[in-house]
Model the fold of this input.
Amino acid sequence: QCKKKLLSLYRISGNSVIEEKVLNTNLDCSPNWETYQYAAGINFYNEKIYYPVWYTKYKHTETGYVGYRNDEYWNANNFWADFPDDGSVLLQQEWKVLVYNDFYGDLVEEIILNDPDIFSINKSYGHEWFFYVEDYNNDGDVEFYVNRWIEESTNDIGSGADSTSGQDITIYNNLGEDITEVILGWSNYSDYFGISSPAVDPVSGKTFDLSVKFDKDITESNAQGIHLDDINNDGFVDIIPQGGWYINLNCSTCNSNYTNIIFMNDGEKFYPTEINFPQNHSNSSNTIFDGSQIAYNFPLDLDNDGNYEMMHILQGGSNQEDEDGAIDIFEFSFDNDGDGFINSNDAFPNNPYSNSADLNGDPIFSLAQNNFTVGVNGTSCIGSSDGKISILINDQNLNYIVTINGENSLNFDSNSGYDKIIEDLTVGSYDICFSVEGQDSYNQCFSLNLIEPQPLSVYSRVDSSNKSLSLNMNGSNKYTIKLNGKITVVDSNSLELKLKSGINLLEVYTDQTCQGVYTEEIFASEEVQYYPNPTSAELQVFVSGFDNEVNLSINGINGYCFYDKLMSVSASRKIDVDLSELNNGIYIIQIDGETVNKSFKIIKK
Done:
């Protein structure tokens, strides 16, 4: 029953094998019965061969004994002949990396990949593209990157799933210690992308937990492998999941706009990054079908231009409910140095201060197009010096000299700051020019016009029903409103204010005196009700508010005043008016008080 595993090293010249050497795997039949390895996991890195293998490890739960299957304890208890199925013996894989000298094939090191969950969570390694050896921060020490398939009843990676299986990426240092949480699993999808709702698969309706760390795939896919390549050519290797990990960022609408995730490396950590598929990309909306992985991502430089392309393959066929297969190829677009030019259009993609070369091939100094923000921060009245210009510099790693109309040199550096407002300016034209210390050929200028402000314009509208005032203002970006002595400053052109009953005094002005002041006196009257109308004699008038007395006048439609008297308002707010001595006809009654100003028509019959 023993299956001895051999590893051969071939030296090839042209089309011929000139030497074959069987490497020492140190894998004898006892105590490591039935040990498997996969050739796809072999890595060649820095003149060494790294070969991942696994052993069957077991734990006897009754005694706590841990050993390798087919060892002395295993045989003494006859576990294989009478293997218990009650959970008293737990089996799991323990992985080891065998390190060989590339030139001579000598075994120089064995590194056990430590897993503290070895007997609580079933973690199986993948079959293809599952193991990589890289140095993510170029410090000279390698790490091991492993794609695993997790399967355990309490490991709820995808809630609402038919099975609790999924995949993860585990990273070990060169001592076999798990360092995943330091450089990959340092946060979760929900916090990083600011998503409060869970991700939903619109095809299957399954919900995936976005609170899991980055190293866990929230989809329910078998381990399909990973790729490690420096796809943006910044000198640091990146992680591309083979199967296409995805998040449905539009989960609130549950459409099919999947976002495939890769992990970019800045030399300190791996960050989840969305792949922005081209609009005509036929596979992006159908990467996942019914919870099963059927799409594969291969990062390749197909045209050898130094820029990676993504080969995206969608598997079709009757086993996928007659879905059509498709192959799409598109080029990754990165701007490593953040200068506004993608790598393929940048002669120096890792130099933020150059994107083109001179005739000698040397970089031409340049700055990002949005490096300088210059604007008029305030206008100036004619004859005054109250204009302002604001200057903000984004790249604060350099020292700048700024001139205004060829004079008044100002320093922008770490000591004096990179954000300033130039004040006390008169109406006129200004040329703001930037130069950089140590870059004699660089000069960039901006022209600004400082003009006199427009006159202040205010339109007011009173809503008597709810005693409110609406203002629409033009001429400035900041207004001061003074209503009944209370001052409000706003930076919008419209405002709603509440009026008090009675006289309201309004003033609107800006910080520029030449724009003028808008003033208005607004009377907000209390409501007045009356009954009956028409009337033959008696009329009852109800006055809202708190006025103790009001002036009541009765006038004909020709303007003749028949009655004008100051009258007291009772506690019931009612005034009795006698019209019996007046001839039949139409009369206008006017009510005036401290908070009342109303008129209405009455018919005497």
User: Anything to note?
Assistant: The two ends are 122 Å apart (CA to CA). Residues 30-34, 153-164, 250-256, 284-293 have pLDDT under 50 and may be disordered. DSSP finds three helices and 46 strands in the chain.
